[in-house]
């Protein structure tokens, strides 16, 4: 699995580097003069964007007892460096390909029960288990960090409405639990927690040009290895800035 992870990381970085290099070469080859008529840059040229995704995420499906996560407290954040590549932009409806690397964080926060949090996640005996803390906790969560490469087909209509449909794949860079008691310092424990190295999902985006977009993501396969963690899908919703 480490070899697969290294290959995917190299592929993601190579794809991003090649895309940026292509744009730079095309820009350097242009020699504008006073009589040159420039095309509409936003429609006909490859454009670069930096985007911030913020929202909520949680597990879906039937979870074992103890896997009670707060939807409001469980947050999703991603930093994306994207290229908008024109595919068909001559008519009123324009089609573009959006792709580029992103770093995403999934935070899964345990729900409060009876005014406090008691549950923690532990990896032991080849199983991910729920363990009750001996003291009341202010915070108990699982965090994963992932490098993704989304590929999205984006339709832009004359009305200004934009619709994106696509998918993404990525590799886990890090994962840890964070437990913070009501009194005392927080403790982070890094480990794999039987999470899969490779993840993939589907994504959609909806909005208007020049405004924040709504996004939704869904990963149908479990984040965890079969038989070592819960068989649960993952979803995320929020806005793209």
Structure write-up:
Helices cover 13% and strands 56% of the residues. It is mainly beta. Mean pLDDT is 86; it is low at 6-11 and 13-37.
Percentage of residues in helical conformation: 10-25%
Strand percentage lies at: over 45%
Largest sheet: 12 strands, antiparallel
Estimated radius of gyration: 21 Å
Please give the count of helices: 2
Number of strands: 12
Question: Tell me, what's the shape?
Answer: elongated
The termini sit apart by 34 Å
Instruction: Please tell me the total number of domains.
Output: 1
Assembly category: single chain
Order of helices and strands: HHEEEEEEEEEEEE
Summed over residues and divided by their number, the pLDDT gives a mean of 86
Structural class: mainly beta
């Amino acid at each position: 699995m480490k070899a697969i992870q290294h290959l995917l990381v190299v592929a993601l970085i190579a794809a991003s580097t090649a895309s940026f290099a292509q744009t730079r070469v095309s820009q350097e080859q242009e020699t504008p003069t006073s009589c040159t008529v420039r095309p509409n840059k936003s429609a006909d040229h490859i454009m670069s964007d930096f985007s911030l995704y913020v929202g909520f995420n949680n597990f879906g499906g039937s979870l074992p007892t103890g896997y009670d996560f707060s939807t409001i407290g469980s947050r999703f954040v991603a930093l994306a460096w994207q290229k908008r590549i024109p595919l068909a932009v001559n008519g009123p409806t324009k089609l573009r390909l959006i792709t580029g690397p992103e770093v995403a964080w999934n935070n899964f926060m345990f729900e409060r029960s009876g005014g406090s949090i008691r549950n923690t996640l532990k990896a032991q005996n080849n199983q991910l288990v729920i363990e009750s803390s001996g003291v009341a906790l202010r915070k108990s969560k699982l965090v994963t960090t992932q490098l993704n490469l989304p590929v999205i087909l984006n339709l832009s209509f004359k009305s200004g409405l934009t619709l994106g449909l696509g998918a993404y794949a990525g590799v886990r860079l890090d994962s840890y639990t964070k437990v913070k008691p009501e009194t005392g310092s927080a403790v982070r424990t890094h480990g794999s927690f039987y999470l899969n190295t490779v993840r993939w999902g589907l994504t959609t985006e909806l909005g208007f040009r020049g405004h924040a977009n709504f996004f939704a993501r869904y990963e149908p396969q479990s984040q965890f290895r079969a038989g070592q963690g819960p068989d649960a899908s993952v979803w995320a919703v929020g806005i793209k800035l």
